[in-house]
Amino acid sequence: MGDFFLTYGEGESYFRRIVYANIILYVVMAIAIVSAFILFMVDIIILILIALIAGIASLACSLLFISRNPPAEYDEETLDHLLE
Quick check: 15 and 6 in contact, CB under 8 A? Predict the structure, then answer.
């Protein structure tokens, strides 16, 4: 049936419609792929920002804890006793 349309009668217009349909399909797929890539990159950027903010907040909290509760100072005698 396809050979009939391509060979006789409206074969040229049929072939032209197939070419246009393929071009439209390729354009739509290109738009979909580019938008999916942009969405994926935005998700990665959001995850990286969340990880950076969480890391900076953890570092700030640990530095605040250390500044409010400094390590105990031991003299030499106590250290020697603890190490025995």
Answer: yes
